[in-house]
Design brief:
The complex is a heterodimer. By secondary structure, chain A is α+β, with helices and mostly antiparallel strands. In chain A, 25% of the residues lie in helices and 29% in strands. Chain A is extended, with a radius of gyration of 21 Å. The chains are: A alpha+beta, B mainly alpha.
């Protein structure tokens, strides 16, 4: 009887683990969609709260410090989407950086972001000769103590 | 130093002074010294010699504690798994006490990993916390082992305590590979693990020696906690015997 419970429990655990391993959650536990995936939804993807992730297209960033108005393009290499956001972005936000925005895609094709996060890659490197490291935390401390 | 330690031990068993005092197990002060000296040296080396990261500047230094702490979390819970299974197999009290000690140390490192991750996330990502697969599964792992410790605290009977916590510990430890693989299986805000290919050589050595130093701390902590657990158990046994004998 007791042994039966142990074997039953073990079977359940192995089954759950196997399900996790072999993709049961793969389609559900996605923290963000890429522009390609969001655009593929067509009208179903418009107006619903969603996270959009990709790379900040180099040269696309337009930041107006007066009105705190930020516009840039997110690309996944295949498709791209314009993003509009208000407020100062995180310190590490810049051209070519990975980014995840929260918000809704507008009917006009512009994504209205309510939140902006920087997604860092797993690469760490020292600055190249002549390049200066970005001392993000200094400006962050200055900002938060103002 | 050893005098001071013995003084402490006797004071905690004061009420049992007349009964046959359990010999306190020999403790390992040299390991405490070596492991904490190693941490200080490894941190100093890593912080003083590694250049600022091109993207995040000196924020990168958090890596030298956050990453080893995460590895030690995994290692501790692996120890819990091994000794929990061994307890269920052989039913020996010491296996239970080792598993419990490793669980307590592992939960501490788990909490440290989460806290440093949040402190790192705020400036690097712009947010303290997100509910992505990596962060969520790491928090679940922490809660499982906090639950494990609560279960032990609330269970009186030693054998029941050992049995239940062995089951929870062994099953809870299965979350470790899920936490580790979460960034590979699912799309997360947290980046996948760095490898020597993605990590500048300027940072690799610092990270490795800090991992080794932290491993020494882990061994010291688990060992010390286990010695204390055995001492506590000895006191309980003596108290029981005293009560049985009419005190």
């Amino acid at each position: 009887m007791k042994r039966g419970w142990i074997i039953g429990g073990a079977v359940v655990i192995v089954a759950v683990f196997g399900w996790l391993l072999f993709g049961g959650l793969e389609k559900n536990v996605v923290f963000f969609l890429t522009p390609k995936e969001l655009l593929a939804k067509g009208n179903d993807g418009i107006g619903v709260p969603v996270r959009l992730g990709g790379q900040v297209k180099p040269g696309s960033v337009k930041w107006n410090a007066q009105t705190l108005d930020l516009r840039f393009t997110v690309t996944d290499g295949a498709r791209e989407m314009q993003v509009h956001s208000t407020g100062a972005p995180p310190q590490m936000f810049r051209d070519g950086m990975g980014v995840v925005v929260e918000g809704r895609a507008g009917a006009g094709g512009v994504f209205e972001a309510t939140g902006l996060m920087v997604k860092h890659s797993n690469a760490y490197r020292a600055p190249k000769p002549g390049e200066e490291a970005h001392e993000k935390y200094k400006t962050l401390i200055q900002q938060s103590t103002k | 130093m050893s005098l001071k330690r013995e003084g402490k031990l006797t004071s905690s068993t004061d009420h049992l002074r007349d009964t046959q005092a359990a010999r306190p197990p020999r403790t390992s002060n040299w390991l405490a010294f070596v492991s904490f000296a190693a941490v200080i040296a490894a941190q100093a080396y890593a912080i003083l010699t590694s250049p600022a990261d091109a993207d995040m500047g000196h924020l990168q230094k958090i890596m030298y504690v956050h990453v080893p702490a995460a590895w030690m979390t995994f290692l501790s819970f692996f120890v819990v798994l091994v000794f929990s299974v061994r307890y269920l197999w052989r039913r020996q009290e010491n296996d239970d006490l080792i598993a419990a000690s490793a669980a307590e140390v592992g939960a501490t490192f788990n909490g440290l990993t989460l806290m440093l991750g949040m402190i790192w996330g705020r400036p690097a990502w712009g947010v303290w916390w997100v509910w992505d697969a990596r962060l969520t599964s790491t928090l679940v792992l922490f809660l499982i082992f906090v639950g494990y410790l609560a279960l032990r605290a609330f269970t009186e009977d030693a054998q029941q305590k050992a049995q239940w916590s062995a089951a929870v510990g062994a099953i809870g430890a299965l979350n470790v590979p899920i936490v580790y693989m979460s960034v590979k299986w699912w799309r997360t805000l947290h980046q996948p693990p760095s490898s020597p290919e993605t990590l500048d050589p300027a940072y690799t050595l610092g990270l490795r020696i800090n991992a080794i130093a932290m491993l020494l701390v882990l061994i010291y902590f688990i060992r010390r906690r286990y010695e204390i657990a055995r001492l506590e158990r000895a006191v309980e046994h003596m108290a029981e015997a005293a009560a049985m004998g009419g005190g």
